[in-house]
Amino acid sequence: MRVVVDLSRCQGYAQCAFLAPDAFRMHGEEALMYSSNPDDAQRQQVLRAAAACPLQAILVDQLEGRDAPVGTSPS
């Protein structure tokens, strides 16, 4: 799985860091740091985090093609 966060849309609500702390974390109050290729064991947490993002700034691409991408790509 590949994760991309549109950092220009991210407002630091930290829902992703709360739901998938191994893949997303806040650095300071506003800067999000994330793993672009999280471990497959984190799949469900990462998918929940992407779905919970209030600004839909997280795109998850299922590289195996098993599932459709989650989130929206930046416009």
TrEMBL record:
Pfam families hit by this protein: Fer4_13 (PF13370)
Domain of life of the native organism: Bacteria
Cofactor names: [3Fe-4S] cluster
UniProt KW keywords: 3Fe-4S, Electron transport, Iron, Iron-sulfur, Metal-binding, Transport
Cited InterPro entries: Fe-S_cluster_ET
Name assigned to this protein: Ferredoxin
